[in-house]
């Protein structure tokens, strides 16, 4: 997952890369939620807030490593939709040399900015395609990006003079909104746009509070089962960011006692936990309608309160990731859980 300078060796590498590109297509991988506790610390020297050009060094802790940025990255590449949207929300599209791996569509307010950024691959680009973009900073949402099957390890990229950043809140168990805000703050410091990062964080907090104020405190939170995929055995959210959003929306994930992000369980266990609501995660090869029909027709679930009352809510995977969409996800969940609180 992981010093010869990349700039110094770039010219002779590009010749080899061009030959490899002629023969090699783009690689891909699947996002995975792996546990890894973040350790975000303030910069050693505070950059001039919001100017985007400060030369003061900024030091952050990334996945247990201390990384110092002596200058603002000029050719960033983002991998995974939620971190791409963080970059765009901070107005950093002009500092992006490429992007890859969408789960669905970029938020409408960022579409124009996104159109300015070269798309390197539908999923993860190969290492050769990444290097051809000449990046000085690679920002990934999931650990699966930093493997030899994808763009290369963190250590390997660092040896080429490229600074990797792994979104910490997406790679830990039980992240809270403050963990997401720490990532946004880090990116703001690295690109010397701290004021924009602070404004974005405050905007997200305000919108989330407006939603939670409407539903109020629930003495008996609704029991919620998250259906990601799987027919013989269901794959579900255990103790991850979606579970946090469910809690904030006045629910309780029935599998939140399992100490990891995602888990495979049994249908018998799903029935035993008596969910009042099912949240269907919208992504992948199966459509929402296919997933919904499967659950409603599965005989083992016939006595489940959520099935009897047809209380199934759809949540896009992009909304459940640790990015800028928390208010959208929270609104979707809260309206589905407590529709009466949102009636005009």
Automatic annotation (TrEMBL):
Key words, A-Z: Signal
Domain Fe/B12 periplasmic-binding: 75-344
Keyword Signal: yes
Region: Disordered, residue numbers: 31-57
Alphabetical list of InterPro entries matching this protein: ABC_Transporter_SBP (IPR050902), ABC_transptr_periplasmic_BD (IPR002491)
Signal peptide (residue range): 1-29
Biased composition (Low complexity): 31-43
Keyword Signal: yes
Alphabetical list of CDD domains matching this protein: TroA_a
Coiled-coil annotated spans: none
Family of this protein: Belongs to the bacterial solute-binding protein 8 family.
Cited PANTHER family: IRON(III) DICITRATE-BINDING PROTEIN, VITAMIN B12-BINDING PROTEIN
Protein name: ABC transporter substrate-binding protein
Biological source species: Brevibacillus ruminantium
Higher taxonomy: Bacteria, Bacillati, Bacillota, Bacilli, Bacillales
């Amino acid at each position: 997952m992981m010093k010869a300078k990349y700039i110094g060796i770039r010219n002779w590498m590009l010749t080899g890369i061009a030959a490899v590109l002629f023969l090699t297509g783009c690689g891909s991988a699947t996002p995975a939620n792996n546990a890894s506790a973040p350790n975000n610390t303030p910069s050693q020297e505070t950059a001039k807030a919001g100017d985007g050009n400060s030369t003061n060094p900024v030091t952050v802790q990334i996945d247990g490593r201390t990384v110092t940025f002596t200058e603002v990255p000029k050719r960033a590449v983002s991998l995974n939709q939620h971190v791409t949207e963080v970059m765009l929300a901070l107005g950093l599209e002009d500092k992006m040399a490429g992007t890859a791996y969408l789960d669905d569509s970029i938020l409408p307010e960022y579409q124009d900015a996104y159109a300015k950024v070269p798309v390197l691959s539908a999923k993860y680009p190969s290492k050769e395609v990444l290097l051809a973009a000449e990046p000085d900073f690679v920002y990934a949402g999931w650990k699966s990006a930093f493997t030899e099957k994808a763009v290369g390890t963190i250590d390997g990229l660092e040896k080429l003079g490229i600074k990797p950043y792994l979104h910490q809140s997406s790679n830990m168990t039980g992240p809270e909104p403050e963990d997401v805000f720490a990532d946004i703050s880090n990116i703001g410091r690295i690109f010397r746009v701290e004021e924009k990062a602070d404004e974005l964080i405050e905007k997200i907090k305000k919108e989330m509070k407006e939603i939670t104020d409407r539903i109020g405190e629930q003495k008996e939170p609704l029991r919620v089962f998250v259906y990601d995929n799987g027919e013989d055995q269901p794959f579900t959210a255990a103790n991850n960011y979606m579970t946090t959003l469910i809690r904030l929306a006045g629910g309780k994930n029935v599998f939140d006692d399992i100490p990891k992000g995602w888990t495979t369980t049994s249908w018998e266990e799903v029935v035993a936990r008596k969910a009042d609501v099912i949240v269907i995660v919208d992504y992948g090869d199966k459509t929402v309608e296919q997933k919904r029909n499967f659950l409603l027709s599965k005989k083992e679930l016939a006595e489940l309160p959520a099935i009897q009352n047809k209380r199934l809510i759809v949540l896009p995977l992009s909304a459940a990731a640790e990015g800028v969409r928390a208010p959208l996800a929270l609104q979707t969940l809260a309206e589905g859980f407590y529709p009466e609180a949102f009636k005009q």
